[in-house]
Amino acid sequence: MDLLIKGGTVVTAKASFKADVAVKNGKISAIGTNLKPGKKTEVVDAKGKMILPGAIDGHTHLAMPFGGTIATDDYHTGTRAAACGGTTTVFDFVLQGVGEPMDAALARRDAICKEQGPAIDYSYHIGVGDVTTPEMLASMDECVKQGITSFKVFMVYDFGVDDGQFYETLQHAAKIGALVGVHAENKHVNDSLIKKCLAEGKTEAWWHYVTKNEDVAGEACVRAVNLAKMAGASLYIVHLDNEQGVKAVADARAEGYPIFAETCPQYLSLTKDVYKNGIPENGLRARDFVCSPPMKGKASQDALWNGIKTGAVSTLATDHCPFLQSEKDWGITKKDGTPGNFTTIPNGCAGIENMYPYILSEANKGRISFEKAVEISATNPAKLFGIDYCKGAIEVGLDADIVIYDPKKKFVVKNAENQHGALDHTVWENVEFKGYPVATYSRGKLVFDGKDYVGQAGDGQFVKCKKVKFKSPEF
Ligand code: DUC
Ligand code: ZN
Ligand code: ZN
């Protein structure tokens, strides 16, 4: 064996137990007690520590053109930061252009990723931008053949789909064994509220929340669930943030439909209050928190936590999409020097390095079990996106994507000192975590040593996804 991690507590989605973990050729080769190292084996003492599967962040926007600029973290800086927070696989979004077959969009994007040098393994979802012709719809099949089995439609934005196109995408996905994700917000109500606010001179970040409030998101969630039921398709609601949506997912699952939901740490830890004044003591203005969907009220936050506990929420992901503070300032003065407003702020926040530390810290404080934290951060995303044949658990035969976690380590986020992405600020500034990763291995190679990124650009490999066909909420 190449590596032996000794004396730690292995955590899986189902149980925690004391064991040694052996690694050979990048795979987990044995799990047991008193495993003996070979002559050349590197032995790592994990006494008092936990041995966890690396997290799988199923929702990132690296180097994505959006809001008149490009997301600050590229495929290297973003994945480097991910590794330093215990994430070992990311699923990024390929945005299909109008008239561009999805497989061509995939090739275009993957070339950029490879050139930038991903630090950890990666795969993609296709962001559906055009299903208006049979060829465009059929290009989903080629993506599935190439190992991309999940697609995302947007119910908002100019590049979003209408309900008919959404329905057709769902039907086609059901036929070819693919999963459809959805960004669920009611575009028409959102547009109408924006028009009214701007006409009344309401331009501050608070109105971003008001125009994308609980009902705007909740109605779209209910509609998305109904469309999936009608189409006989499975559905994955991304970045779920509202109580009505949690209820829609829970009800559909109770009826036996394969409907799943993802939430993000920002919806579990922050509320709409951040849009009033920001958090000035951390150098954060209200506009720094502008992301879509925006954070909601306490009732929705409580519903999301409850959804995690009951299983209505299956996964945790970041929606990492960072923009510089100077770009966030476009909400005050636009790039061209004219007055800005809440609609001219690039949407998105950082989080790629903070997801696993956040949810593990919540587990460490007793809010959920460590097993649940592992389930929603690693095991369930691997199953839903068809990569559980190689990732998502500490299991013999799987990739040695391993995090050693010290439950006693205290960590306070300081963007300038201990974060590893390219952004000039973070909404996680000064947040304190109870416990922190002290090592991250990607296919058996150390990429984070507890302080710094120690891997190399280009270490990350493309992960092929298997077809997914869910007949029920169990998977
Ligand atoms: N929401 C964001 O905040 N950023 C990118 C795309 C999205 O839907
Ligand atoms: Zn989205
Ligand atoms: Zn997103």
Give a summary of the structure in a few sentences:
The chain has 475 residues and is α/β, with parallel strands linked by helices. Helix content is 32%, strand content 22%.
Keywords for this structure?
475 residues, alpha/beta, eight-stranded parallel sheet, 15 helices, 32% helix, binds zinc ion
Describe this structure in words.
This protein has 475 residues and is of the alpha/beta class. 32% of the residues lie in helices and 22% in strands. It contains 15 helices and 18 strands. Strand 1 and strand 2 (16-24) form a beta hairpin. The longest helix is centred in the middle third of the chain and has 18 residues, at 214-231. The model has no long low-confidence stretch (mean pLDDT 97). It binds dihydropyrimidine-2,4(1H,3H)-dione and zinc ion (2 copies).
Secondary-structure topology with pairs:
Layout: E1 3-11, E2 16-24, E3 27-32, E4 42-45, E5 50-53, E6 55-60, E7 65-66, E8 69-70, H1 77-84, E9 87-95, H2 102-116, E10 121-127, H3 134-145, E11 150-154, H4 163-176, E12 179-183, H5 187-199, H6 206-211, H7 214-231, E13 235-237, H8 243-254, E14 259-263, H9 265-269, H10 274-277, H11 298-310, E15 315-316, H12 325-328, H13 355-364, H14 370-384, E16 402-412, H15 415-418, E17 432-442, E18 445-448
Parallel strand pairs: 1-4, 1-5, 6-9, 9-10, 10-11, 11-12, 12-13, 13-14, 14-15
Antiparallel strand pairs: 1-2, 2-3, 5-16, 7-8, 16-17, 17-18
